[in-house]
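Example (one chain per record):
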Amino acid sequence: MDLLVTPADVQDRDAARVLLTRLHAEHPEIVLVWADNGYGGEEFATWAQHTLGITVKVVSRPKDAKGFVLLPKRWVVERSNSWTMRARRNARDYERLMSHAEAHIQWAFITLMTRRLTRRNRRTEVATTPLTAVA
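Predicted structure:
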């Protein structure tokens, strides 16, 4: 997929236009994007639909909700963010350049996926182990 690190003074919707344009160029098959309230403006959703052919679905917190509410799709993003924070370098903002911060996040995901792809799966090993003949 793709990621974009921006300074704190950049609006989410402005950064999302850049990110969605890059994402669409690399993965034109993506036609649906889930977003939180920071991207909830009608103008942004209309722009994404007409310019890129991407539908933006905003996951909003219920108006009558109090306290913590588990939002659909949102937990996936938060879980992914917590995985990258396991990489010590991503726990603090040490980088002077945004491209370096992006590279460290990508490196954390590469490490995570490499470990997942190369770990031994015990269920598969048990299923593929040949049975010995009973004498």
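Caption: The two ends are 54 Å apart (CA to CA).
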